[in-house]
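Form 7-S
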Amino acid sequence: MADDHRQLLEAAAALLDPHFDIVGTATDGAMLVSEALRLRPDVIVTDITMPVLSGIDAIQQLRDSDFLPKIVILTIHAEKEFLNACLSEGVLGYVVKARMKAHLIPAIKAAMIGEQYISPFGFT
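Output:
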């Protein structure tokens, strides 16, 4: 899991812990890349806007390294341009943080079986 807000990482971990094994966390995009390559998780949950590298740039670096985990985005961005940019990078899940409690677990479960899940939200 990657997000530059430690409190959100803790809240997401508390939500996910009963359902999934959380193997690592990162607080910036570069750390996400290095930890993902080291830990090789099945699914990565990441924010878009982070220091050093954005979540999208981190995804591109992982894909360039031939590591192809399933990706779920957890973000505040409810704009179609962000959604489309993520989908073009092969992201399977897109969850708006305001809907994290209701939609993050279903998004991860869908990603794990190769299905797409987009959090129902009024995208602008």
